[in-house]
Fold:
Amino acid sequence: MWSPDCAANFGTVGLGTDTGGSVRAPASINNLVGIRPTVGLVSRSGMGPLDSQRDTPGPMGRTVEDVARVLDVIVGIDPSDPRTATSGEHIPASYTDFLKRDGLRGARIGVFSQSLHLEFGADPRVAALFDAAVGDLSGAGATVVDDFNVPGFETFPRPPQTVSRTKADWERFFADAGPRFPVRTVAELRDAPVGQRVHPLHASRIA
Structure:
């Protein structure tokens, strides 16, 4: 279930996969709630990899309560994903127990406004919405700290995102996928005639 389906009321909730923002960003764009769980809290078994150190499934929905209830269902230990082995001791009876209307009262939240001005800067409309959201935090009782600056932040080198691990992660995924999977190696996928190529994310649905 993709986020526009939830936004259009075709579905109550949806699941996505997030490596660098692929649950949070589409949820935000479609006026939904999206949660990126800590890696290892939700099993990634059967999920097409992008970076095994940062990949994680996560829920999307129209309300915080909806996604909290989905999170209750999808978290847990899965022997096929070793990263989940230590998650059990961190799982509450229900994530809905943390839903409090005055939950921001007394909270201290840092807002790194400087990040809005990276490269070409944020669209003015996006910046205005961001400022309005910060105002909402204050209105809900949070103490907002935004008068700080990191010298030279704009020139910090960007770390590699996924390319350093992607090939090895896909090779491991193909090896574990079983005999029904139509692709066995990254090289096989690369060398297949264009008309016969199967995108591994699509093929994973039939594995």
Summary: The longest helix spans residues 124-139.
